[in-house]
Each structure stands twice: as C-alpha cells, then as structure tokens.
Amino acid sequence: MDSLLENLENSFKVDDRPNNTDAAHPYFMNFYKCRNDASNQAARRKEFLEAQKKKRTSEHNTFRNILETDSQHNTTKNNLPKEKCQSMEWLPSGKKKIPFKSKTQDSECLKNILMESEWLVDVPDDLDTRWTAVVCPQGKRCILVAKGNGTQAYDKAGRQFMSFPSWLPSGSWAETYSSPGGHKNGQTILDCIYNFDSTSFYVLDVIEWNSHPFLSCETDFRFYWLSSKFDEIIQLSEKSKNNPKSIYLAPRFPAAELPSRMAHFPLVEETNPKVDGILFYHKETHYTSGSTPLVGWLKPFMVPEMLKISVHEAYKADVPPNYLSAVQFIQSSLSNQAQKSKYRTRKDSNQKGIRRGKNRHSSSMDKVESMEEDSASNQDPPVEATSCDTKADLVNRDMISELASCESSSSSTEMHMEDNAGNS
C-alpha cells in the first residue's frame, strides 16, 4: 500500500518539491504572478520614490533650464513663424465669429516633457489610502502655455496647434491688467487634454503657475494648488472674447471613492465628455517627464476586472468586440504602441535625411557640413538616442514578454496536469 501511494504521489508531481496541501495550486500561482510580477511595478514604484528624493535638486535644475530656454526661445523677435493658425474669437450670440489670426512657433524645449502613465497591471495594496483618481476625457494630450499676454497649445512633440487668449496668468492682455497677480513676464504651463467635441481643455496637472515651478512638489500639493486657483478664477470655465476656450479642472478624488463615483454616470458633469480612462496618481510623486509607475492607467471597462468593483453599465459600452481579458487587452495595446514607436523613429530619421539632402545643394560650406553629418549618422547610435520614448518602449517590451510568459506558463501547467491525469 505504501509503495502504491508513493507511485501515485510521484505520478501527480508537477515539480521536485514535496506535496503540500496548504500550498497554492500551481495554476493559480501562475495566474496571480501575472498580476504581481508584470513589469515589477511594485518594486519599481519603491525605486522611483527613493530615487526622486535623491534627484529632486537635479530635476528642478533641469526643468528650470527647459522653462527658461523655452521662454527666451519664444520671446526672441528673430524667430520666424512656421505656419499660420486660426482660432475663433467668441462674440455675443447673434453675431458672427471673427477669426483670431496668430502665428505659431514650435518649441523643441517642450518636446516630450509630459509625465506619462503606465498600465495599472499590478494593483497597489495602498490604492485606497495613497492614490488619487483623475478622470481623463477623450481628446488630445497637450501642453498649455500662457505667457506674453497670449496662450498657446502644443502637442506632445512640441508642435503648436492653437493660439488664443485666456484668463490664465499672463494668458491675455485682459488678465494681465485686471488681475493683481498677473504680469506680462510671467509664465504658466499646464498638462491638459483638449476635447474636440466640447472644444474645451481639461487640466490634468500643473508644471508651472505664474512663473512658480511645481516640479519638485508632491501630487497632493499640486492638485490642491490647482483646485484653489480654479475656484478663484471662475472665468476660466466661461467662454468669452478673452477666453474663447473653456478650461476646466479634470475631476479628481481619492481612489477610495472610485466605487461610489463609477456607480453613477457621467463622471464629468460640466460638459459630459466621453471618458477615455482613469489615471491613478501616487500622492508623493513629483512631476517627471517620461513614463513612471507612480501614475497608473485603466480604461473604464477594465475597472471591474482589475479593481473588483461594480460600475455603471454605460462605462461598459466601449468594450472592444474582441475583448477577452484585461491582460490580453494590455498586451495588444503595448504591442501596437511599440509598432507605432518604431514607425515614428523611422519617419523622423527619413525626414532628417531629406533635410540633409536639401542642405547639400545650398552652398559649398553646407556640403562639407552635411558630409560630416552623414558620416556621423552612419555610426550606430546608443539605445537612449533612438527616440524620446526609448525608456518607455523598453518597459513596454518587458511588460509584453512577462505577460506572454505568464500566459504560456499557465497553459503549459494545464497541459502537464491533463497529461498526468490521463496517464494515471
């Protein structure tokens, strides 16, 4: 009997460790490993929090140079405009809208300075106590800059796509001379979403307010400052001649309130824009450019599966037709993002090659310089210099490989268990 039990035990072994009835089942261990170890978000969060304490001074100096350089770049009179941009001056009802013509200037200094989120693959244990949820409407991620009695909107690549007056500090002549805190030499930079349906901006975060940088400030303070300022400047949400685009503060609340908030529809009551997703900010994170695990991201239809809470049925209307699980959706999204990043890199390199080709025919001196550039470009660049999204791409590739390994290990475990059951 003992030998029979020993043979039976050996036939059902899935590894060399002795059987333990209190241990977790290997299949479920692989399933939860897929959540806890995907991209090691929990470990990287701790590393980011520790690292930002050490590099607070260096980050502040770096961003200060960016802000000062951008201010000098756009206020120099010798900078020639690249293209014309038209916005609309809003007049009282019954009158026609007069085009507000302005000239755009792209800003290399604003390129890729936005703080990017990561998929919330690993749900933190302190989500209810140390995280803030921010509702993100659908639209274009952009940088809103108010200075020199004007307001400009730039995309993530630093290309200006809109210019208009606003009631932000230094955003218009009316604000400068009517507000005691306004002055034409000030500067305000906001992280925003532009919603095309409502033609409104929704502010996610603050980088600089009236020449006061907030880069080394924690999330709690930055959000408190924004809330207090939007309560003071009520004209920001009202469309007028001096504020043709409404500027709202994106709704935010403690993550613990998410179940009660998402039980009702809509999340954004002002203009009821379509919600793109939910951002989760760690309360202690500083504003840093690039991807960070201290800002998580989930689509509304993923919230029930990932956070185990019930939501209003309206938030489930945007579920993709081929949606199977949050893990597979994230894996597919990361793969598409990696492909787009490669396409952008090739496109940028081709454009640089075309520009170099044109410069060769300008003068003999230009020919010599372009030949030097060509010889330098033939060398393999370092990994960090391939694109501004390289670090984010590396994280995405790690997430894809780990998510795939989780699924393959789970399926192999199932097949191994079925084979053992058949042999027995």
Automatic annotation (TrEMBL):
Ranges of biased composition (kind: Basic and acidic residues): 52-62, 390-400, 415-424
Which residue stretches belong to region Disordered? 52-80, 337-424
Chief location category = cytoplasm
List the molecular function annotations (GO) for this entry: RNA binding
Query: Which Pfam families does the record match to this protein?
Result: Snurportin1, SPN1_m3Gcap_bd
Q: Where is the composition biased (Polar residues)?
A: 68-79
**Which InterPro entries does this one have?**
Snurportin-1 (IPR017336), Snurportin-1_N (IPR024721), Snurportin1_C (IPR047857)
User: Transmembrane segments in this chain: where?
Assistant: none
Signal sequence range: none
**Low complexity compositional bias: what residue ranges?**
401-414
Keyword Transport present in the record's keywords: the answer is: yes
GO annotations under biological process? snRNA import into nucleus
Q: Which family does the UniProt entry place this protein in?
A: Belongs to the snurportin family.
Q: Which named protein is this?
A: Snurportin-1
Q: Which organism's genome codes for this protein?
A: Bemisia tabaci (Sweetpotato whitefly)
